[in-house]
Amino acid sequence: DDPVPIRSLRSGVPYELNRLVLSMLGKDPALRPSFLELQEALGRVEPFASEDLAVSFPPNAITEVRALRRR
To answer: C or N: which end of the chain has fewer Cβ atoms within 10 Å?
Structure first.
C-alpha cells in the first residue's frame, strides 16, 4: 500500500513537507532523498512552519533536525 499523504490527515501541513514525507516513505530506497536533499527540503519547509505544526512533532524533533543541519 502507498503511504497516506499527511495533508489528507491535516490540511495545514505545508505542501513541501507533505512531498518530503511521501518521498521518505517510498518503497524503493534508491528513490528516497539523500541527507543533503533532506537538508535542502527542510530549509524550504522551515519558513512555513508554525507553532501549530511544531506541536505535531515529538517535543525535541525540531531542535534535533536544526542541530543536524548545522553539522
So the answer is: N
